[in-house]
Design a protein that fits this description.
Aspartate Aminotransferase, domain 2, 2 domains, 7-stranded mixed β-sheet, 3-stranded antiparallel β-sheet, 14 helices, 12 strands, 37% helix, transferase, transaminase activity
Length: 512
């Protein structure tokens, strides 16, 4: 049989592509950090080959692991390396997506006790305590809707036990629709889009060279050509620290008039860092650009967790059209049963507009100072941030310029665990509901997210640890990295870990 030259070239190209794929998939197996990740329950690729039960995991018929969010996985790995939530003074946790909860300069006093009246021992309504719903509506009207004919009432507010609970309630009432999401974005969207399978996920990759800005013209075309019914995103955006505001945010809100629902996670709406003194105390919300609160299909999720710096309270809310709120009451009745009753009552005075303004100004000054401090220290370490954050309390740090294997987020994370510091590898923000993508092909693979939420002394402790890793690389070379990661706290090996040793060379892979 004879081949014409074009056919030979085509065949050669195909073979080359296959070899490239094999080579790429071999990379994961050659990296100890990546193999540990894949062996964690729920992190195997789905959809490429039939799933098999891992005999070393205790299984329950019919149960599948959804995969853990980034913070949970990283916390579990830290615990295997000696981290403890109760005795963590020697550790720097720059991974947890939580702000410092103690006093900060010029802020109102922290809540120190919670009154528990007898009535609050009863269940609260699944939509929340009416007085708190009224307080939320009043705050939004005061902050974003002065002079507008359409105003929020308590019927536009549903109180939920945490932001993820709010998102889950919303997902439970959405029909079989195409749902747009962006990469990178909040890690829990991955599990939500995987668990609620009526939502068909449609990804959009945000470009670093465009400062991770959402291309609204492209979104509008996708609405028309792909039939997008729901757009889900965080604003300000976790993990990149960028924010959509002004005309861009107005245009996104106006997409709802083309038959699309916009769900906006606005948990970082106060974490805005102005350059001008007069702008301190201003915050961001899509509520400012809504015409009719019951007609415009804009759904806002926010709460006490970030802005009020009370993550342990688990008191949050969803704001939207009345008919959505009634649907959320129904989904909440079987999903979570409602938020904590006494803490809902305790939250009411915290939403007083005068107190909120005082909180905002203090928070913005304090966190801007911490942001600038971390950026300066990273610069001194030779780790300049490509796109510095203008909002949130996160830094999206690109590691590509570091030598392999420190130039990928999972390995960098594992090396910092040895130095008692936690960061979040970027792959967790690659919303990839079926986990199909080879990790080395992820656009987030070379990133880590650093949080400057913790107190400044913890930030310095973590930055010192990064400095030690970089110094060690310079002094000892790269053979010191990429291996010898603790799989469990007691040091014993399970059958899974024995297999890991079989997959991963004892010496670092130069190809990683």
């Amino acid at each position: 049989m004879h081949f014409h030259l074009p056919h030979v070239q085509s065949f050669s190209n195909a073979v080359g592509q296959v070899r490239d794929v094999i080579k790429q998939y071999r990379h994961e197996k050659e990296s100890e950090a990546h193999v540990i990740f894949r062996q964690s329950a729920g992190h195997q690729p789905k959809g490429l080959i039939p799933q098999i039960v891992n005999p070393d995991e205790e299984t329950v018929p019919g149960i599948e692991h959804p995969g853990s969010t980034g913070v949970i996985y990283c916390s579990e790995r830290a615990i295997a390396n000696g981290f403890s939530y109760t005795e963590s003074h020697s550790w720097a946790n720059l991974g947890q997506g939580a702000p410092e909860v103690g006093p900060i300069p010029d802020a109102p006093p922290r809540p120190s006790y919670v009154n528990v009246p007898t009535d609050s021992l009863e269940y609260a309504p699944t939509t929340g305590v009416k007085a708190l719903r009224e307080a939320v509506a009043k705050l939004y009207n005061h902050t974003y809707r002065k002079g507008k004919a359409s105003q929020y009432t308590y019927e536009n507010v549903c109180i939920v036990p945490g932001g993820r609970s709010g998102l889950s309630r919303i997902a439970a009432v959405i029909g079989d629709v195409y749902t747009s999401f962006q990469v990178p974005d909040y890690t829990a969207y991955d599990q939500m889009l995987s668990a609620f399978r009526r939502l068909v996920p449609v990804p959009t990759a945000l470009q670093q060279e465009k400062k991770y800005r959402l291309d609204l013209e492209q979104v509008r075309r996708d609405v028309m050509t792909q039939g997008l019914a729901v757009i889900l995103c965080s604003n300000p955006r976790n993990p990149t620290g960028q924010v959509m505001k002004g005309n861009d945010l107005r245009e996104l809100v106006h997409l709802t008039r083309e038959g699309t629902t916009v769900i906006l996670d606005e948990f970082y709406s106060w974490y805005i860092y102005p350059e001008n003194e007069k702008d301190f105390g201003k915050s961001i919300s899509s509520a400012e650009y809504i015409d009719d609160v019951n007609e415009d299909a804009v759904v806002i999720v926010d709460g006490l967790t970030k802005n009020w710096r009370l993550p342990g309270w688990r008191v949050c809310w969803v704001v939207g059209p009345k008919n959505l709120i009634s649907a959320l009451s129904q989904s909440g009745s079987f999903l979570d049963g409602g938020a904590n009753h006494p803490l809902q009552l305790a939250a009411i005075p915290l939403l007083d507009p005068a107190r909120v303004q005082e909180e905002k100004i203090a928070l913005q000054r304090h966190f801007k100072s911490k942001r600038d401090h971390v950026l300066r220290r990273l610069h001194d370490l030779g780790l300049d941030v490509d796109i510095p954050p203008t909002s949130t309390f996160y830094i999206w740090l690109n590691l590509e310029k570091l030598p392999a294997p420190l130039n990928n987020g999972l390995t960098f994370f594992e090396e910092l665990l040895k130095e008692q510091t936690i960061v979040i590898p970027g792959i967790f923000f690659d919303i990839n509901p079926s986990h199909r993508r080879n990790l080395f092909n992820s656009p987030c693979h070379h990133f880590v997210r650093l949080s400057f939420g913790p107190p400044k002394e913890d930030l310095d402790k973590g930055l010192d640890a990064i400095g030690r890793v970089l110094k060690k690389a310079k002094k000892e070379g790269m053979k010191a990295f990429g291996h010898n990661y603790k799989k469990s706290l007691d040091g014993t090996e399970s059958p899974v870990e024995e297999r890991l040793r079989g997959h991963v060379d004892a010496t670092p892979a130069e190809t990683v």
